[in-house]
Structure formats: structure tokens, C-alpha cells
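RECORD TYPE: inverse folding
INPUT: C-alpha cells
STRUCTURE:
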């Protein structure tokens, strides 16, 4: 997926789990454009993961083994909390 193709990123944020949609879609709308290119690439890699993995990482049931992805999980989750 290309870094600057925001339409594709938005589409990839549409997941099979409502809990993930609630995290990803607002993050992309409010924060994706302001991310550094390296962070955009990491976010895209995160979107390529399977929903059960993502759910476990975002809900704190498991620790993401990839340090870059784990950092992005924290960023997305931190932006989603009031």
C-alpha cells in the first residue's frame, strides 16, 4: 500500500471487528496525515495484521512482539482514549 494513498488506508481500516473500526477510523481521520513517513509505514504494516492479533494487542491481552508495531499500538490507543 502506498504511503500517501489515504483512500486505501481508510479502506484498510474497515475491519471485521467493530472494536478495531472504532480505533482505526478516527485515528486515520484525525492523525494519519500528520505522521512521519516512517510512522505511516508502520501503521500500514499494522493494518496488514490479522484482526484477532490486533484485538489482543489493543485490548492488552497480548504484547505485540514487533517493537515498532507495539509503539504504534500505543499511539493509536492513546489517541482513542478521551
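DESIGNED SEQUENCE:
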Amino acid at each position: 500500500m502506498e504511503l500517501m494513498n489515504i483512500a486505501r488506508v481508510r479502506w484498510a481500516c474497515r475491519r471485521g471487528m467493530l472494536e478495531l473500526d472504532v480505533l482505526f477510523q478516527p485515528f486515520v481521520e484525525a492523525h494519519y496525515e500528520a505522521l512521519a513517513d516512517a510512522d505511516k509505514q508502520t501503521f500500514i504494516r499494522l493494518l496488514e495484521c490479522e484482526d484477532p492479533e490486533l484485538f489482543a494487542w489493543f485490548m492488552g491481552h497480548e504484547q505485540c512482539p514487533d517493537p515498532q508495531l507495539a509503539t504504534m499500538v500505543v499511539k493509536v490507543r492513546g489517541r482513542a482514549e478521551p
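NOTES: The chain has a mean pLDDT of 91.
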